[in-house]
Amino acid sequence: MIGVDWGSSNLRAYRYGPEGTVLERRSGGPGAAVLERDAFEPALAEILAGWTDGRVPIVLAGMAGRRGGWREAPYLPCPANPAHLAAAAVAIRPTIGPCFLVPGLSTRGRDGVAGVMRGEETQILGAGLADGVVVLPGTHSKWVRLTEGRITDFATTMTGELYALLLDHSLIGQTATRGACDRPDAFTAGVRRALAAGGIERVLFSARAEVLLGTLEPEAVESFLSGLLIGGEIAAMRGLLDGPPALIGTAALCTRYAAALSLAGYPSAQILGGEMAVSRGLWRIGRDIAALRGPDGTGEVS
Questions:
Q1: What's the rounded Cα separation, in Å, for the pair 21 and 17?
Q2: What CA–CA distance (Å, rounded) separates 272 from 293?
Q3: Cis link prior to 77 (omega < 30° from 0)?
Q4: Which CATH architecture has domain 158-268?
Q5: Which residues on neighbouring strands pair with residue 149, listed in sequence order?
Q6: Greatest CA span in the chain, whole angstroms?
Q7: Same fold for the domain at 2-156+274-300 and the one at 158-268?
Q8: Beta pairing partners, 272
Q9: CATH number of 2-156+274-300: 3.30.413.10, 3.40.50.300, 3.30.565.10, 3.30.420.300?
Q10: What is the pLDDT of residues 43-82, one digit of tens each?
């Protein structure tokens, strides 16, 4: 089979052997966010050239299944495991071969707050964890509860997006020297301040005030602000934790979160590679699709 992780800005594709070994990997191509519906198939055919004869099943996670994407794969309510995602995958039959769009997941907490994810569920379920909390840092960080191999609940924080907005469109960004080198001391100070305050509401403006008072260098603002926001995120979400969570994502960002979690009293957070997790998740879902719909997945193709 072939697995595709199609994000908003790019895609990654994997060609698997019979036991799930990744035989070849490709990346690049247009992101799903810039494509019209009729452009998905030719874009996919280009990156998969030579991999398929029109019969190999292709499992696609991520934004190809969003509303307005290639074909909408509606959100599946939690709890969910790979078999649930496989059963709800939307099947289409373009000339390139049978394709299965993995649905995203939705949740609604006891407080009525709704959440959705699309793409992250494949990484989480590919990580091989059975119980506990998984954090996926990023533009919209996900805090996910796993129980017996199922995603049972999750919450989203907009930490990465807030960081970019504050630097680009606020008074805080006006005091910062952009693109400065990483300052671990300033990051730690920001994390400690947000944790002590229990959030960012009372302390966020200090990223500007400290510069004006001469107690924070403009070159340290980016690191200090990152610490404030990540520390505030952990302060807001620590009620979910009964131990250190697992982290899935890029090494640099996960290392930063691990350092902040240690300051919050959760040392030794496990860091898992995002690409390995998504490739394994695509294989697990594809294997279940084959079990439900036959070896080539065509049993329920419309």
A1: 5
A2: 31
A3: no
A4: 2-Layer Sandwich (3.30)
A5: none
A6: 68
A7: yes
A8: 248
A9: 3.30.420.300
A10: 999 999 999 999 999 999 999 999 999 999 999 999 999 9
CA 114 to CA 270: how far, in whole Å?
Answer: 28
DSSP conformation class of 30:
-
Q: At what angle do helices 221-237 and 159-169 cross, to 10 degrees?
A: 150
HSE (side-chain half, CA atoms, 13 Å) at 267 = 0
The tokens describing 108, both together, are 């609604």
Confidence (pTM): 0.93
Angle at 145 between CA 143 and CA 146, to 5 degrees: 135
Across the strands, what pairs with 106?
77, 116
Helix (H) or strand (E) holding 247: strand 246-249
Q: Locate tokens 């302060």: which residue?
A: 235
Tens digits of residue pLDDT in 176-231: 999 988 999 999 999 999 999 999 999 999 999 999 999 999 999 999 999 999 99
Give the contacts of 49 (CB within 8 A, at least 6 positions apart): none
Q: Which two tokens stand for residue 281?
A: 């998740």
